[in-house]
Amino acid sequence: MHLKNSKTIVIKIGSSLLVDKNKKIRKKWLSSFAKDIKKLKEKKKKIIIVSSGAIALGCIKMNYNKSNIKLDKSQAIASVGQIELMNLFSKIFLKSKLNISQILLTLDDTEERRRSINAKRTFENLFDLNYIPIVNENDTIATSEIKYGDNDRLASRVAQITNADTLILLSDVDGLFTKNPKKFKNAKLIKEINNLDKDIQNIHTKGITKLGSGGMNTKIEAAKICNLAGCNMVIANGLYLNPINQIEKKNNCTWFFSRISKLHARKKWIISSVSPKGELTIDDGAKRALKNGKSLLAAGIKKVSGKFYKGDHIKILDNKRQEFARGLSSFSSQEINKIIGCHSNEIGEILGYVSKSEVVHKDDMVEV
Predict the structure, then answer these.
(1) CA distances from residue 354 to 121, 154, 346, 349 in whole angstroms, order as listed
(2) Contact between residue 138 and residue 74 where contact means Cβ atoms under 8 Å apart
């Protein structure tokens, strides 16, 4: 039911779902997963897959034991394994007539405002082209200081920057239990968490697999990031065939429900900017368009104040110099000064390169 109402869904796959304990690739499982994705796509859902497995597949190809590998060697193995991972997805998803693309992210790509906006636009363009982004951490260049540490955290950041409705963490357990189910037979599955801080105070569960790097604690941290962004999250057992179908039909999993709306979360983030870097003064026509939920175009801008860069927080003022809205600029102040008052179809010619038509996109703007 919860997936039915979700327009954008991020699905995270752990290494243990792609590679079994005998280091065999689970092709049959991936084929069933692809069929699940096909059904979601037929329901007009936007899907992003965050997949671990590059190092695990690299180890299989190069016959290495993952537990003995240091960071610098693991980066080299990841570069070999990433090709194996994408080839695996490409071959199996093609059978279900699904197009895939690859996105490799480092921590800075989602933590730094400008880069996270660029990443968001890339995801949106891939959706428009009917491609499914397959995301992984850029293990080949990330040092220990700038790594997410695990793909649970990466998936939650991807859900955050893409304004996803639901994040699905496919794990090797059914969900969050009152105790560790691998040690205690009387452990009970918790079906719903509605208040994260309150509901998990007495739960201490860890579930670390040999091929994966994330335990239950990292999943709870991911839930916190999602919930603050107005995104629901579910931990479900991905070892079954057709794992998404299992969630929809049986719902034998743990849902973490956000208590705030996505819009409220985004507004809070934009409004809470410490100090906007500049100002745009707009005409009455542009103000009316913004009030009707439109984006801010160059044609409606009368004046640029301050020096700012693409992705910076800025104030939007009306003709009377009253603050009307705040938002994230798609252009630098230098670029806006060149295109001020111009029509969108003239921007490419003026700047000398193809760029966006909106100076501040409606999704990146809040009335104050």
Answers:
(1) 14, 30, 10, 8
(2) no
DSSP state string for 276-300: --EEEEE-HHHHHHHHTTPPEEGGG
Q: CATH topology for 273-367?
A: 2.30.130
How many whole angstroms separate alpha carbon 103 and alpha carbon 321?
42
- Contact predicate 310/330, CB 8 Å: yes
CB-based burial of residue 290 (10 Å sphere; 0-12 exposed, 13-18 middle, 19+ buried)?
buried
pTM of the model: 0.75
User: Which residues belong to CATH 2.30.130.10 in the chain?
Assistant: 273-367
| pLDDT tens per residue, range 207-236 | 433 334 447 788 888 898 888 888 999 999
- The Cα 169–Cα 221 span in angstroms is 12
User: How many CA within 13 A on the CB side of residue 16?
Assistant: 19
CA–CA distance, 117 with 310 (Å, rounded to integer): 9
